[in-house]
Amino acid sequence: MVDLSSCYLHTLGDSEREKLADLRSRLPQLLERVREESEEARKQDKLTIWGVVLEDQNDASDIVLLKFIRAEELDVDKAAERIVSTLVFRADCQITNLRDAELPDYFQGHDTLSGVDVDGRPVLISRFGKMDLEKVFGDVEAFVRYRAKLMEQAMAKLSFRRGEPEELTQVHDYSGVPLIFQTSQVKGSVAAVTKVFSEHYPETKGKTIFVNFPAAFAKLFKAFSVFIPERTLKKFLILGENDHAQLFENILPDVIPEGIGGMYRNNLTATCQLVPVRARGVEERALVAGPGTLDWELRVCYTDIAYEVVFAPSDGSPEEVVDKSEGKLLLAEDGIVSGTFEAKVPGTLKCRFRNEGAWFKSR
């Protein structure tokens, strides 16, 4: 495997710098070829990829060119050909305009683009469980345009500045997806979009996390993985149901939607605390200090838990119970529980989680 660690703008080696200069010197001829091959390209004053004008000599265009060089494992000839192919594709399919295009209703409401992962990469989350599979996957071209639109929106979150994140993290949630998801129709659409992304969106995949991924879908994943380069394939992480701990190692819960175990909802975010609670254990955490209006939220990600929210005055007065799970456990499917408390004196709002009913499993 070729070492590409010195093929980033902030770590550029001498050999890689020469390859970048070589590719840039070819740009005038490459762009001329694009315009010869594409009538749509001839209508454009500037040819761009992800909003970056390749002819401009700056860090942003260098970063884009280096992506193509890395994708072809330092082969400048192949990188040049891929740039031509990608620019023709983007012009003919009007990809730049696709970012703001309106799509049919059945493509909407399944995706979330907000926040970054622990490495600073923009996070795109797609949930397949509530999709109308026949409509979403029934038209291959429409499906590719739908996914390309999302990718363009996600790529717009990148700064294209030296040393800053250059890739995306994607989360695919399969909770609620029926086994009929494994159809030739679905395979055709998935294979088509995978081919388009592998050819025309090089070096954009930082990590792809499959959550709630049933074992039955492993064959489907294997089928379309033949289109994915080996280096890219290593960026995939497959998680089973309720594997939130590993998910939160990559993406903090305030970025993860409520529906898949996170704390993000209604486009509002706040700093979260993770509280593992061992079997037969009790854990306490301070939430916020008073006096004032104190807002709180909590949830359990796996199975169930008992909880109580209390306010402890600073002067040592008895605690005041703000809320508690009265006679029943808080279930994971209950999602987020929240409330507001008016603290009239200095003190701390606290939460206690009780897992005393479990003999073996942590929460």
List keywords for this structure.
five-stranded antiparallel beta sheet, 11 helices, alpha/beta, five-stranded mixed beta sheet, 363 residues, single chain
Number of strands: 12
Widest sheet: strand ordering: 3-4-5-6-7
User: What's the helical proportion of residues?
Assistant: 25-40%
Structural class: alpha/beta
Overall pLDDT, averaged?
Answer: 89
- Using only CA atoms, what is the Rg? 25 Å
Written account of the structure:
The protein is α/β, with parallel strands linked by helices and 363 residues long. The protein contains eleven helices and twelve strands. It has helices at residues 14-37, 39-42, 59-71, 76-92, 95-98, 133-138, 140-155, 184-200, 218-224, 230-233, 244-250, and strands at residues 48-49, 52-53, 111-116, 122-127, 168-173, 205-211, 236-238, 282-298, 304-313, 320-324, 330-331, 337-354. The protein has a five-stranded mixed sheet, covered by helices on one side. Strand 3 (111-116) and strand 4 form a beta hairpin.
Summarize, please:
The protein is an alpha/beta fold and 363 residues long.
Please write out the topology.
Layout lengths: L13 H24 L1 H4 L5 E2 L2 E2 L5 H13 L4 H17 L2 H4 L12 E6 L5 E6 L5 H6 L1 H16 L12 E6 L10 H17 L4 E7 L6 H7 L5 H4 L2 E3 L5 H7 L31 E17 L5 E10 L6 E5 L5 E2 L5 E18 L9
Parallel strand pairs: 4-5, 5-6, 6-7
Antiparallel strand pairs: 1-2, 3-4, 8-12, 9-10, 9-11, 9-12
Helix pairs in contact: 1-3, 1-4, 3-4, 7-8
